[in-house]
Amino acid sequence: MFEDNYRHRGLRNKLVRTLRKKGIKDERVLEAIGKVPRHFFFDDALLEHAYQDKAFPIGEGQTISQPYTVAFQTEKLQVRPGDKVLEVGTGSGYQACVLLELGAKVFTIEYNRNLYEKARTFLPSMGYRPTFFHGDGSKGLPSRAPFDRIIVTAGAPSVPSALLEQLADGGILVIPVGDRERQQMVVIRKKDGILQEERYDMFAFVPLLGAEGWGAG
Predict the structure, then answer these.
(1) Which domains does the chain have, with CATH numbers?
(2) Which of 65, 125, 158, 161 is the catalytic position?
(3) The whole model's pTM is what?
(4) Whether the bond into 57 is cis, omega within 30 of 0
């Protein structure tokens, strides 16, 4: 069904070199990105753009994230094999594939039903099988909590309290927080019930929709 040839692998290797030059140091993250065939997520007319370090539209007002953004968030998440990870915002499913390549047990939730249905069918056809949910990711996934790691792939106006509650002790939450146009990457660690926060670079994500996001309007 899918073709992943020498040229595609060469382009992925080139992308990995680009990410390394931009400051991504975690070799496990770089290796994971080097394994995921990003061109599978693109229409034939856009294949030439698949391994550029850019975001591209995937419909429904959403995008497949820039590889650097995926690498940055994933590096800050510090995923260990076997970690139970909640991804808020399935989108195309590309980020979930990277997490799976790192050995995580991934629970991914998507607000938009059309994107949820597409990812739920498409990712298993590639050999990637996270556990899919449709719903309000700003509320987390209390039925499956707690989580060792939580990653939010949409811009939030503030850190949802539900996600903090569902973060396991010793866990890490990575989330972009700001306005609808620009957000600062926030990394929160929970240790002995105490939250420690660090802030990093500015990014541009689509808005996090939901009760603890920007609403559905």
Answers:
(1) 6-203 (3.40.50.150)
(2) 65
(3) 0.94
(4) no
